[in-house]
Amino acid sequence: MTKKELADAVYNVHGGLSRKEAADVIDAVLGKVKDSLFDGEKVQITKFGVFEIQKKLERRGVNPLTGEIIDIPAHRAIVFRPSSHLKSAMNHEQQ
User: Range of 53's domain?
Assistant: First the structure.
């Protein structure tokens, strides 16, 4: 799903917004999520999940193409943990 598709979904659900206003809402929400993550905050969306930045330590890895052992530097990564509600809904849909 793209940002445009999200904006179209907001537009279709909320009849009082123009397409541009719906796109602006999506931009505002995503901007706030990004700013919160960069400020070191967790972003928790009820019944969906939690986004947060985790520090990854330096480690050794293997290049899958060459088999060469490489050092992977320490870095930060954005991680997502789905809520139990989302996991349950996903597993229920597959049955």
Answer: 42-95
- Do 30 and 48 fall within a single domain? no
DSSP letters, 14-66, are -TTS-HHHHHHHHHHHHHHHHHHHHTT--EEETTTEEEEEEEE--EEEE-TTT
For the chain, what is the mean pLDDT?
A: 93
Distance CA 19, CA 10 (A): 9
Could you tell me which of 58, 60, 52, 56 has the C-alpha nearest to residue 78?
52
Residues 35 and 52 placed together within one structural domain of the fold: no
Report pTM: 0.77
Q: How many residues does the chain have?
A: 95
